[in-house]
Amino acid sequence: MILPNDDELLLQKLREESRAVFLQRKSRELLDNNELQNLWFLLDTHHTPPLIGEEQMIGYDDFKKVGEMSGDKYKHFFTSVVFAKLYQQDPLGRISILQYFNYVMRKVWLHQTRIGLSLYDVAGQGFLREADLENYILELIPTLPQLDGLEKSFYSFYVCTGVRKFFFFLDPLRTGKIKILDILACGFLDDLLELRDEELSKAVQENNWFSAPSALRVYGQYLNLDKDHNGMLSKEELSRYGTGTLTNIFLDRVFQECLTYDGEMDYKTYLDFVLAMENRKEPAALQYLFKLLDVKTCGYLNVFSLNYFFRAIQEMMKLHGQDPVLFADVKDEIFDMVKPQDPLKITLQDLINSGQGETVTNILIDLNGFWTYENREVLVVDPGMDDDV
């Protein structure tokens, strides 16, 4: 598809208008609330007895009958494929009405959301750039009751915080754009739109990256680290992140490999760092950290790489008056944990497949993480012990 050039303003306007008309037509094809209520009424009055507990079921004949009564707008929900997808081994060959209705609701929501996102797809090619997603989230804020208390002066930081999660996990090659289909499939939008619920518990909010408490926590940490209040973080300032026990060698690598300005890190780059550190079981986070650990850019970690980072752990142990652990022992433990295909090289895929990526990175970059690993057996509390003993 040939896109209009930047100077072809009339063609650009025509294209935008035609896309808007197309999306409006698609939106009208979706079931509205009244039509969904009508569907529920028809399913309720044509269920196939008997009940399973209190749950209504519907057989294929009644299912097709409801489809015929509903009309053309509903017909793609009443196919044999849909029925088979929801069949759960009922001895009478029926499906759950509630499960079916939830399936329809989910499909309608997905199509609505896809159309909503597509309105921000300036190029019209099924991708959103960072600026597009920023506009989407910014205009979404007033519709989310859980964000009512946010100061407008914080909106730009909130939007940046939200957008980074999408791009950190969905744009691993850093192309600057992500597929709308990937946004719909990843589940992050569910977390974002969960903020429509006015009754969210404190625990749920704390575990939701997009909640106001979570965004304020991350930004507050950034401000606390920024001791000279210049809006950027130096290596020395970042060294106080978490428990303040990240090694200098690792921090050097962060500032070598990540985007910095005159040797300092901005909030956007800091967000990528936080997402990597807080999600070390996830492939995207391990990819971020693996790039830092791969000092020779050879695509794998070998004995040299492991020793390069672990030497800094040994030095920190000496500074804290602890007896350093022998590298040979740690190296053997790491290779035993990961079980790489090549016994002398650990690739990113080896690290991901092993399920031990978080433990390995803890051992190599963070004294506190290494100490926790070394004392894991001591730290397992006997449930029969009295806390006062």
UniProtKB/TrEMBL annotation:
Keywords: Calcium, Cytoplasm. InterPro entries: EF-hand-dom_pair, EF_Hand_1_Ca_BS, PPP2R3C. Coiled coil: none annotated. CDD domains: PPP2R3C. Gene3D superfamilies: EF-hand (1.10.238.10). Its main location: cytoplasm. The keyword Nucleotide-binding does not apply. PANTHER family: SERINE/THREONINE-PROTEIN PHOSPHATASE 2A REGULATORY SUBUNIT B'' SUBUNIT GAMMA, SERINE_THREONINE-PROTEIN PHOSPHATASE 2A REGULATORY SUBUNIT B'' SUBUNIT GAMMA. This is Serine/threonine-protein phosphatase 2A regulatory subunit B'' subunit gamma.
